[in-house]
Design a protein that fits this description.
This protein is of the alpha/beta class. It has helices at 78-92, 98-102, 117-126, and strands spanning 14-23, 26-28, 54-62, 65-66, 70-72, 105-107, 132-134. This is Transposable element Tcb1 transposase.
Length: 135
């Protein structure tokens, strides 16, 4: 992260990524489920529905390029995430100019599937695609 100190173009070189799960019950995120209001809205959260569905969507952005969203497995584990990094991500990076990919940093959010030993080995493999990994 010292590289970014004093370099105003630093954020443009980071591939910011995240994934989120959506279902018929709405967006759910175990880390930040909030209702913002000036007064107590006495909000409730419905847990039932006639048709059940859920998806886990990954997206990334670097500089001014939004990478195509990708549907991940709902039950994401390290092997599935490794497959995504090795097989899918290089294709999604096709829209990123070569000179941007050359100096690109990969931001990982530290979720369990992203931080196992298998994925750390994969980090070495994808280092041929991106120059640095940021955890």
């Amino acid at each position: 992260m010292q590289k970014g100190v004093g370099d105003p173009s630093f954020p443009a070189s980071v591939l910011f990524t995240d994934d989120a799960s959506f279902s018929h019950e709405g967006l759910f995120n175990v880390y930040s489920l909030h209702v913002w209001a000036y007064n107590n809205p006495h909000s409730t959260r419905s847990h039932t529905g006639q048709h059940c569905f859920a998806v886990n969507v990954w997206a990334g952005i670097i500089d001014d390029c939004l990478l195509e969203p990708y549907l991940l497995s709902l039950l994401l584990d390290s092997q599935k995430y490794q497959f995504f990094l090795e097989t899918v991500l290089p294709t999604l990076l096709g829209c990123v100019l070569a000179h941007i990919r050359q100096d690109m940093l990969f931001q990982s959010d530290g979720a369990l599937a992203h931080s196992t030993i298998v994925v750390h080995v994969c980090d070495y493999i994808i280092s041929s695609i991106v120059s640095h990994l940021v955890h």
